[in-house]
Amino acid sequence: MTTDRVTVEIADRVAHVTLSRADKMNALDPAMLEAIVAAGEEVNRDDVRAVVLSGAGRAFCAGLDVASFQGLMADPSSINERTHGRSNLWQRVSMIWHELPMPVIASLHGTCFGGGLQIALGADIRIAHPTTQMSVMEMKWGLVPDMGGMVLLPKLMPADIMRRLIYTAEIFDAQHAVGWGLVTEVADEPLARAQDLAVEIASKSPSAIRAAKALAAIAETDGPEEVLLAESRLQASLIGQPHQMEQAMANMQKRDPVFE
Fold first, then answer.
1. In what order do the strands lie in the sheet with 104-108?
2. I need a labelling partner for 58 at 20 to 30 A (CA). Which of 122, 191, 207, 223 fits?
3. Coiled-coil ranges per the record (predicted)?
């Protein structure tokens, strides 16, 4: 898929999704929202083992396009409609990455504000350039995070820091974000690092990687009894199956595994 908002390229089992509204710093308008969701749906395929999410130009995503906010003001009640399962369109642009069965790695640079940050939160892993500027910016406009951020933020960072960032809309850098749990690591070439990591993940057992992501999601929300049962259930689904057998055989034969 290639549009004037988002491009998708799939190579060597890795999907590369790029926000491509570079002239607007990938700001979010309705067409951008639709294109991001469509991209997430497109890469939800059995032959995709990892996803790299990045932004073209000077920024990952500068947040909401101001003109779009003006349009939303005309009918704010519309955001109550569940147009995408349990989400509305705005929420789906972040939750779709969180809910994909394969790992998603976000490469961040430039600015990552408001809705842009919430999209990045949907990834499993976030790699940022040292100069990346970030903000939970909704309070600047008299709003609250409403694009899935309040599902994802509490799982990543201390409650008091989260509240401070929401209340103040302060801008912070990637180094602070690492310390708070919002960024996984900092790299001088975040896109290259994200791509290398995606290739490494794609080389592992596809069924085990998907099971690991499913198990991690359960562990984030459920109690010990449910997590222990999920460990057993998912492990039993892997043992003795072709991917697991190929991984074990490759280890013993000291070669790279080959997965269909």
1. 6-11, 14-19, 50-55, 104-108, 125-128, 185-186
2. 122
3. none
